[in-house]
Amino acid sequence: MALAHQVRSLATTRFPARLLHGWHHPVMGQFMIRDREAFGRISAMMYGINTLGAALGAALAGFYLPLWLGFNATCVLAIVLSLAVALAAFKLSLRPLPKTIQSNASPEPKTEIAEAPPLPTTRQERRAQERLEKSRQEKRPQNEPSSITSDSPPTAGRKAIMALCFLSGFGVLALEVLWTRMFSQVLENSVYTFATILVIVLVCLALGALVSSGLARLKASPLVVLTLLVLAGAGALIATPHVFMYLTDEMQIVTSTGSWSSYILLIFRTAALTIAPSALILGTIFPYLMKTEEAHMKSPGQSLGRLATINTIGAILGALLCGFLLLDGLGIWRSMQIITLLYLVAALCLPLGWNLRSLVTKAVCLVVLLVNMFALDPASLPIISTDPLAREEKVIEIWEASDCTVAVTESQVGTSIKINSHYSLGSTGAYMQEKLQADLPLMIYPETESLFFLGVGTGISAGGALDPSHKNVKKVVACELVPEVITASKKYMTDFHGFDCTGGLFNDPRATVLVEDGRHYLMATNEKFDIVNADLFVPFRSGAGSLYTKEHFESSKKRLTPDGVFVQWLPLYQLTENEFSIIARTMIEVFDQVSMWRHNFQPGDEIVALIGHQKGQTLPASDIDSWADKLYAISGKDPSDLMRLNLPLDPQTILFFYGGNLTAARELFEDYPLNTDDRPVIEYQAPRSYRKGSSDQPPWLVGAPFANLVDKIQTICPPSDDPLLVNRSTDNRRMPLAGSAFHRARIESLKENTEATQKAWTEFVKEWTATD
């Protein structure tokens, strides 16, 4: 349903504009080409220049314009540029046009046709031209060949050329899908990395077109040149996977400790060395096909339109079939091998004749084909890589899907589910930490009956809501975008050495697991939930920024019951203070109150939850008496026991995790921009800002910087005066201060600062044991 909705949306919003854009090249060719022998050269040059413009547009749109202007203003800019082009075209149309195609051939005897037929500029002129040619053919003796078609290849050869035109579009777009998937295994997958690959492909296609424009000047047989180009492109494709493995050290993540610009240059270099040779050579094929069209051309625009139509249909089918069928059925390496095979078969089928040169060319094609199938078979290459820092990690199972590559790995820390080699969705080794993402908000709001989880991953967090300790939970709905992740979770997380880590998520009648885009589901459904719980999302990954936008927070708020809350988990070890502040400012703009809660107290690995509350909400009171448990937990302990403390966790002591009221301290975030769908600053700034740090001073908001931020928030709005805590007792409202002191003690302990550790420990004990 979601896919069908997206297809309808794209068809209605983009089809009309793309249809009109598709007329540009044929119409320009009709205007510019006045010499039959120059058709191939000029058409290829036009195509190359046009594609260079596309590369420049992709670079600007991928790296700068959305951040500078926003998507809406960028679209307006594109419209203005299109109108300027239209105005320029209108002015050119006022100039007089030549009436005939000029020929560079030597004059023929009078009994032959000395001039090329008139250039048809309108439908009426084309029909008149066809009638005139038919009349000439009827008057010409049967043994006298036509001057226009005498050098034309046979009909079978023309069909082979049209098939190659289709394959050129099919192959290049299918390969772009495969190349993107290939590099998603080794890149951080921000919006910039995908833009880099697109720009490289477009630049190579443009350069290939310009090269083919030069080749069109040669007097060599066009079919021989075309065969050699296809053969060279196939050879480059065979080498691509092996070059990729060499440059990425067997698919290890490509990273740089330098600046953002040095990282982008590293990506450009790695991607260019890997895919540029094949993209450049294959990029010459379609433009050079225009050289073979010279013998058949009656109208430049008509010929260009025909070739472009066939090529574009191939491109559409290539992207669709590769993205939805080939990757699922064959995987990345076998799909690339099949596409290479198609190019080699096409080279063999081109009608070169049976002279020695042609036979040698076909023999070389056969040799390359055998090398592709056996000697350099890419199917033996690894599909994903394992973490070199993980001890004895091994791959258990892999799913190559249209969205991503999903793998289950096993190491000494447990069984993990990963996406694209390096993005971990969770592990059995982090069972308690993942389960706490459900437990913490349910301890704050123990009367919760219905929950929505945006993201399933291992299923541990969503399944945690079904724990018997949460007696009031009646409904859990969880959405996961990647179906193979659900498959992996069902297979490996429900029976981990006989234990169901998902808490019965896939068989409990209260739970519903959907393969759906969670954001879109919240926008479309009419269901209401007491808690909407959004999982951790890496902010600098492409697409993740949309889950931190004002519009998403607004649609989530609409899906809450009157007393419901929205919970957004944030991995501070992947956020700078800039990104955290942007997200906080955006949530403050949407929700009446926003509070911050710690997930853990481990310096360097901090996670927080930002909870959006609706108007008039306060935290519910708790009548649990935890006094004895609190005293027992610290009895006889000192700072050396910081890592071994077993503090009680219940709805009364949960305020120990409370970081503060961000709305009351909104002055700290007012200077930061909002993150919106129109201007997704998170998605475009995060990959840049986190590279501003150094190895000595990491940029993340963890450790002391985070503790300092909490101190600022609690100074502006002390827990004793926090409007969210009015239902709590005076001593209970001192628990957030105990949490802050405990976190500070952990930080100083890691620094081996004994005096500061003791001071923070004393403050922790004071606040932890405080009474009215």
What's the short version?
With 772 residues, the protein is α/β, with parallel strands linked by helices. The protein is built from 25 helices and twelve strands.
Can you walk me through this structure?
With 772 residues, the protein is of the alpha/beta class. It has 25 helices and twelve strands. It has helices spanning 2-21, 24-32, 39-63, 65-68, 71-93, 123-139, 155-184, 191-215, 222-247, 260-282, 285-292, 300-329, 331-349, 356-375, 431-444, 460-464, 483-492, 518-524, 550-558, 577-590, 627-634, 681-689, 704-716, 735-750, 754-768, and strands at 394-400, 405-411, 414-419, 423-427, 450-454, 475-480, 511-515, 529-534, 560-571, 593-598, 607-613, 658-661. Helix 23 runs antiparallel to helix 24. The protein starts with a helix and ends with a helix.
Offer a few descriptive terms.
single chain; four-stranded antiparallel β-sheet; 25 helices; 52% helix; elongated
Helical residue percent? 40-55%
Range of strand content: 5-15%
User: So what's the overall shape?
Assistant: elongated
The Cα radius of gyration reads 33 Å
* Major sheet size, sense and barrel closure: 8 strands, mixed
- Widest beta sheet: strand line-up: 7-6-5-8-9-11-10-12
Low-confidence stretches: 103-119, 140-153
Query: Terminal Cα separation, in Å?
Result: 57 Å
Overall structural class, as computed from helix and strand content, comes to alpha/beta
Provide mean pLDDT, rounded.
87
Tally of separate helices: 25
**How many β-strands, per DSSP?**
12
